[in-house]
């Protein structure tokens, strides 16, 4: 029986775990918080899929590729949109109650860059929470072992293939295969919609194990996080329902940037917000949802409504302050269409993976769908694969930057400020080179770091290195020193661990007799 460890417990991880178990694998889910402490739980807008006869998979594919600036892998997009409807049916069978209209039809929301309303939601704006609860219950009911509050320190390799994982407390778990589903790395940035655990753990562990990563320069910034109190996502669905963005003078500015105004692709709206903020001394822009009325706001967006009111704001009466925030990482661990990475026995799914489906920018509400579709495929592949051939060494190492002599002391906060200033919505060569030098200096410092700090530092170095290498602007990667220059013909920058230092840590450690079997 194939023994599989799934690291991470969001929609991608739990879907993979369920499919692997249903196909005969013995599965252990390892997660660093409690089972429901995931990015998925915070997803508001919904899950995009073709569920109406007037909609087509060709239209969903075209929207996905337009949002991705054409850098998407067309085969991955076909899989995503083609298998989407079946995964919606599966989610319903597992207990997700998507919102419906009075006549029993799905209630479909419109979000930016979608040609038609196709975004299903549950509990109004609690789609992720509903999915998380249903999948968590299904995993418990299936008897899958769940190890909570267990932090992945590293992958373990034996003879060039996966042998299991090691946890922060030193415990080892043997496995034939590991599926990484640890989400993204929003915590690289000072402002993010992601929870505190989004520290790029899977990507960093995969890098240390020698796996290829790609597209890390493509970080999506959401245009509208609440700018009062802790950052909190205000779903694009609010703009889909008619809310508009205004500056300090009350002027709608989004149409200056794009004919679709507030519903233009996310990177366009996020940069329009940032530009408007720059012209008003950094004050947040405002999201005016007053036209929707108190009753509709509370019914359609109960989670956001509560968060807004907790901050002492009444969005039914006055526009609320919003700011862009890091939201999603399009790049990640390179996989094929079944989640296989370049390391035998290692799989990656969801935001941790780079399937090529998102290109240079993700279409709204395609992320839950990606987790469901590619989680299912990886779970089935891992049960089928059985034998993982060792591939020839193909890694390309990243050239390390010269350490800066004037780097401030390392802290998570300092790293987040650096990334926000130099590798955020708008980048240029000088700022990126400075960031690379500071990161190199922190990386060379032997002071002890937590696993999360070590992961953030490694992933940050790769984001900056990829952003430096892509000298033109495309999708979410905007270079102010080359705003109109098409990106060079490097559709997908792949890299593995840096040239020195943080190499594959546990390579060639054989499975230990005292390790737990999964
Ligand atoms: C949102 O609700 O605006 C976020 C949904 C997404 O990131 O796809």
TrEMBL record:
The keyword Flavoprotein applies. One of its GO terms (biological process) is 'de novo' NAD+ biosynthetic process from L-aspartate. It catalyses: L-aspartate + O2 = iminosuccinate + H2O2. The keyword Nucleotide-binding does not apply. InterPro entries: FAD-dep_OxRdtase_2_FAD-bd, FAD/NAD-bd_sf, Fum_R/Succ_DH_flav-like_C_sf, Fum_Rdtase/Succ_DH_flav-like_C, NadB, Succ_DH/fumarate_Rdtase_cat_sf. Keywords: FAD, Flavoprotein, Oxidoreductase, Pyridine nucleotide biosynthesis, Signal. Pathway: Cofactor biosynthesis; NAD(+) biosynthesis; iminoaspartate from L-aspartate (oxidase route): step 1/1. Gene3D superfamilies: FAD/NAD(P)-binding domain, Fumarate reductase/succinate dehydrogenase flavoprotein-like, C-terminal domain, Succinate dehydrogenase/fumarate reductase flavoprotein, catalytic domain. GO terms for cellular component: cytoplasm. This is L-aspartate oxidase. It comes from Microbacterium testaceum.
């Amino acid at each position: 029986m194939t023994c599989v460890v799934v690291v991470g417990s969001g929609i991608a991880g739990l879907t993979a775990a369920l499919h692997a178990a249903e196909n005969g694998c013995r599965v252990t889910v390892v997660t660093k918080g409690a089972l429901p402490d995931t990015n998925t739980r915070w997803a508001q807008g919904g899950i995009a899929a073709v569920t109406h006869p007037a909609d087509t998979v060709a239209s969903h594919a075209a929207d996905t590729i337009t949002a991705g600036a054409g850098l998407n892998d067309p085969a991955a997009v076909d899989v995503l949109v083609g298998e989407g409807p079946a995964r919606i049916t599966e989610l319903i069978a597992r207990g997700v109650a998507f919102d419906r209209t009075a006549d029993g039809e799905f209630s479909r929301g419109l979000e930016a860059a979608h040609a038609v309303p196709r975004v299903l939601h549950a509990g109004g704006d609690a789609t992720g929470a509903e999915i998380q609860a249903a999948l968590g219950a299904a995993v418990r009911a299936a008897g899958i072992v769940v190890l909570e509050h267990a932090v992945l320190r590293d992958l373990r390799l034996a003879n060039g293939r996966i042998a299991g994982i090691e946890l922060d407390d030193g415990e080892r778990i043997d496995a034939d295969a590991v599926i990484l589903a640890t989400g993204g790395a929003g915590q690289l940035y000072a402002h993010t919609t992601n929870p505190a655990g989004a520290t790029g753990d899977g990507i960093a562990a995969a890098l240390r194990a020698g796996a290829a990563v790609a597209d890390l320069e493509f970080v999506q910034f959401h245009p509208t996080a609440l700018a009062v109190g802790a950052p909190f996502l205000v779903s694009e669905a609010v703009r889909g329902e008619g809310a508009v963005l205004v500056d300090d003078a009350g002027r709608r500015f989004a149409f200056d940037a794009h004919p679709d105004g507030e519903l233009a692709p996310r990177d366009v709206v996020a940069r329009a917000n940032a530009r408007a903020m720059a012209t008003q001394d950094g004050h947040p822009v405002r999201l005016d949802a007053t036209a929707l009325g108190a009753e509709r706001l509370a019914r359609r967006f109960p989670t956001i409504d509560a968060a807004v009111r907790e901050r002492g704001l009444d969005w039914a009466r006055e526009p609320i302050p919003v700011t862009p925030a890091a939201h999603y990482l399009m790049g990640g661990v390179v996989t094929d269409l079944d989640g296989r990475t370049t390391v035998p026995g290692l799989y990656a799914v969801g935001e941790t993976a780079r399937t090529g489906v998102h290109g240079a920018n993700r279409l709204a509400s395609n992320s839950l769908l990606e987790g469901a579709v590619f989680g299912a495929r990886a779970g089935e592949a891992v049960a089928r694969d059985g034998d993982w051939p060792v591939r020839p060494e193909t890694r390309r190492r990243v050239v390390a930057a010269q350490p800066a002599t004037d780097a401030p002391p390392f802290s998570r906060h300092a790293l987040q400020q650096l990334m926000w200033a130099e590798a955020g919505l708008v980048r240029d060569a000088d700022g990126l080179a400075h960031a690379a030098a500071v990161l190199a200096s922190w990386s060379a410092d032997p002071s002890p770091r937590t696993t999360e700090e070590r992961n953030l530092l490694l992933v940050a170095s790769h984001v900056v290195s990829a952003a430096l290498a892509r000298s033109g602007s495309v999708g979410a990667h905007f270079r102010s020193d080359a705003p109109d220059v098409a990106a060079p013909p490097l559709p997908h920058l792949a890299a593995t661990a840096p040239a020195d230092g943080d190499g594959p840590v546990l390579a060639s450690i054989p499975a230990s007799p005292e390790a737990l079997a999964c």
